[in-house]
Design brief:
The chain has a six-stranded antiparallel sheet with strand order 3-2-1-4-6-5, with helices on both faces. The protein contains two helices and six strands; from the N terminus they run E-E-E-E-H-E-H-E. The chain is of the alpha+beta class. The model has no long low-confidence stretch (mean pLDDT about 95). It has one domain: NADH Oxidase, CATH 3.40.109.10. The protein starts with 10 loop residues before the first strand and ends in a 6-residue tail after the last strand. Bound molecules: flavin mononucleotide. The site of flavin mononucleotide has 6 residues, from strand 5.
């Protein structure tokens, strides 16, 4: 249910958990191990990310955005990532989970932690967890 501009399908979803970081292979519907270490603390600049159940990271691969203008790649990738994030919000709302989409990311640090290439650009991240007692 997530559209993408020009059907570029340029957003890869990384799932960063305590046991490791994975890339979601949507076609095969499986998680591929990227790093078998806890990288949660690198997924954002806010304290809660380090202990959250799951941090998703939406990574655009600019190589897939063929014929895009240089000045439109960033915001189209951001819009595409936003569509995915909204789906996650709806899923969480229906499943009793809490979530927040995040732009506060040290992108240089997270790029390094995940071993991303020069054409991969981190659009957004999103934290999922169980609601706190105040919710
Ligand atoms: C593009 C975008 C980036 C955001 N970045 C952050 C962020 O880095 N950290 C955070 O705690 N919340 C972030 N938010 C969440 C908003 O602050 C939040 O949705 C707003 O305060 C309303 O709160 P609610 O979603 O709980 O109703 C972001 C929201 C959007 C749409």
């Amino acid at each position: 249910m997530a559209p993408s501009a020009h059907n570029w399908q340029e957003i890869d979803i990384y799932a960063v958990l305590a046991e490791g970081a994975y890339r979601y292979d949507a076609r095969a519907h499986r998680l591929l191990l990227v790093k078998a270490e806890d990288l949660r603390q690198h997924t954002g600049t806010q304290n809660f990310v380090a202990t959250a159940l799951v941090n998703l990271v939406y990574v655009a691969d600019f190589v897939r955005m063929s014929e895009a203008q240089d000045d439109e790649r960033g915001f189209l990738a951001g819009a595409d990532a936003g569509c995915i994030a909204q789906n996650i919000y709806l899923y969480c709302a229906g499943s009793g989970l809490a979530t927040v989409v995040r732009g506060l990311i040290d992108r240089r640090r997270l790029t390094h932690a995940l071993g991303l290439t020069a054409t991969q650009c981190i659009a957004l991240a999103q934290t999922l967890g169980y609601p706190g007692p105040e919710a």
